[in-house]
Description:
- This protein is globular.
- It has a three-stranded antiparallel β-sheet.
- A hairpin with a 3-residue loop joins strand 1 and strand 2.
- It has six helices and three strands.
- By secondary structure, it is an alpha+beta fold.
Amino acid sequence: EEDFDYHFEDLAPFGRDWPGLAPPGEPMEDPDVVADWYAGLLQDDTAHLGLVAADRSADTLAVTGWTGPANHAQTALLAAVVRSWEDRFGVRVTRVGLDPLDLSVAAPPQTTEHALHVAAEHFAFCPDNIQQASPGQDTLDGYAEQMRGKNSWSFWWD
């Protein structure tokens, strides 16, 4: 058995057991409206607009050859996860950097149980979000609570 640097006790109640995909959220607003709103919040003097010929927002990661999480996962696999989140949570890619990824979320989890299930997906997608988080957000429970009802998800790979 491989020895991963994960603290599985911090992933309670699931631990090493994958709970499967979380059910879809209930849309609060049209996904494109939420994406426009969130992109406006992210706007600053260092941001640049990029136009990408892709059918879906998630596809921009693979089409551009984004290498942000180079030491963690293949971009095409991450794009497939984001595509699934597009379908279930109305996410849109709103900002990409050298290693961060920001998504708008039109249908975030509203209950603690649903958020916990989604948090397990976030851990599989980007363990750094939980393993290197501030105290109180460095467990699955803490992370889930801070993301409940939130219209944005941010990820970064160290």
